[in-house]
TrEMBL record:
SUPFAM superfamilies: LanC-like (SSF158745). This is Lanthionine synthetase C-like protein. It comes from the Bacteria.
């Protein structure tokens, strides 16, 4: 399997060398910041300095042309700055915390802290802010910025409380309708909402920010996630015939919801068993309904699924989940080797290739975690842990 993975990794790196300059997006999710994370880690594995040199060029280009008015995490300066911090922490680049790139992003963010909540963007921006709070020195300006950021984070937590504090969990009927009708619409939106809230609350707890409110809200959000996961379990018990596409959608939502739940709670046997039972039913259903045939895979979705499973299994250390991860990786590698054109899997539109952590870089980093002696921890970019 290493040989197959090595071939794929080399192809991913080659594609990035050819296309990296053409993707003008500097961001983390689809652009050059995400690509640089893969290239440096691949250099660490291959020991070919050419990849590090190209990554150096990307980082130089990124740092010289950041649009500080674009504060978003997925393709804006907070995500870019997070990537630079990751690279510096891994000793790939020489970048002290006090450099202008971070100071400028901090000031831009304080100038226009976003007024949206419970989205991946808002959770990402909070993740960047929490990382910065760890690193501030106590000089007068740094202390002022630190206080201002805490003030923004407290307001963010209060907004989550306003949005969720008085809402009841879904009823069984509501959940059944969601699961039957459109898991990619209603449930997708709910999963993102609760995942994003969980990220913000977990980070707030780590920094002892607004502790009483955070503890109360963590219970509220965890209870809602428990209801969704239990609802999925019951739905699978009650429905024998489901479309495999529907099951794949549900499986990713299950993983997102359980990952969010783990960010708020210590693993409990009852909830763990419900999750494992639900996951096994979905896996068995997919195996039965494909009958061993080669199936067309949505590669980005498969990478997301495997990465979520990896992260969850760090907490659970469950042998069934480990076996399922290995099987999914083997299946994906075989599919990419025999059936799929890598470029086709990650084309966003006729002129843009996704080379970031939700695209080619994510695939490459997930595969590197199979062959490197130490994990790259790249999934932190997606806020999974």
């Amino acid at each position: 399997m290493h040989t197959k993975i090595d071939i794929l990794l080399e192809e991913i790196a080659r594609i990035m060398l050819v296309t990296g300059d053409f993707n003008k997006n500097k961001g983390l999710f689809v652009g050059q910041s995400g690509a640089s994370m893969f290239l440096y880690n691949y250099y660490n594995y291959s020991e070919n300095e050419f990849y590090a040199s190209f990554a150096d060029e990307l980082v130089m280009s990124i740092s010289q042309s950041m649009d500080e008015d674009k504060i978003f995490y997925s393709d804006g300066v907070t995500g870019i700055a997070w990537a630079m911090s990751y690279l510096a922490g891994a000793d790939f680049i020489d970048l002290s915390v006090g450099t202008a790139i971070f100071d400028n992003v901090d000031k831009a963010l304080l100038k226009s802290y976003p007024r949206f909540f419970q989205t991946v963007e808002s959770a990402g921006i909070c993740t960047y802010v929490y990382e910065r709070l760890k690193d501030y020195n106590k000089e007068s300006e740094g202390e002022l910025i630190e206080l201002l950021f805490v003030e923004r984070l407290v307001a963010h937590i209060e907004e989550i409380a306003l949005l969720e504090g008085n809402k009841k969990p879904f009823t069984r009927r509501e959940l059944t309708e969601m699961l039957e009708d459109s898991p990619k619409a209603t449930l997708d939106k709910s999963a993102e909402k609760y995942f994003s809230a969980a990220v913000v609350l977990r980070k707030a707890r780590q920094h002892s920010i607004y502790s009483e409110m955070v503890d109360r809200l963590s219970i509220v959000i965890a209870d809602k996630l428990t209801g969704i996961i239990n609802g999925m379990h019951q739905f699978l018990e009650d429905n024998e015939a489901l479309n495999p596409v529907h099951i794949r959608q549900l499986q990713n939502q299950l993983l997102i919801c359980f990952n969010a739940w783990l960010q708020l709670r210590v693993p409990e046997e009852e909830m763990t068993q419900t999750f494992i039972s639900c996951f096994v039913k979905m896996e068995n259903y997919l195996i039965m309904n494909t009958g061993g045939r080669t199936e067309k895979l949505n590669v980005p979705v498969e990478v997301t699924c495997i990465t979520l499973m990896d992260t969850i299994n760090i907490a659970l250390q469950h042998p069934m989940l480990k076996d399922a991860i290995n099987a999914k990786v083997d299946r994906l590698v075989d599919y990419l080797e025999k059936e799929a054109d890598l470029v086709d899997q990650f084309v966003l539109n006729p002129v843009t290739l996704n080379i970031g952590v939700t695209g080619l870089a994510g695939l490459g980093l997930m595969l590197l975690d199979r062959v490197l002696p130490e994990k790259t921890n790249w999934e932190k970019a997606l806020m999974y842990n």
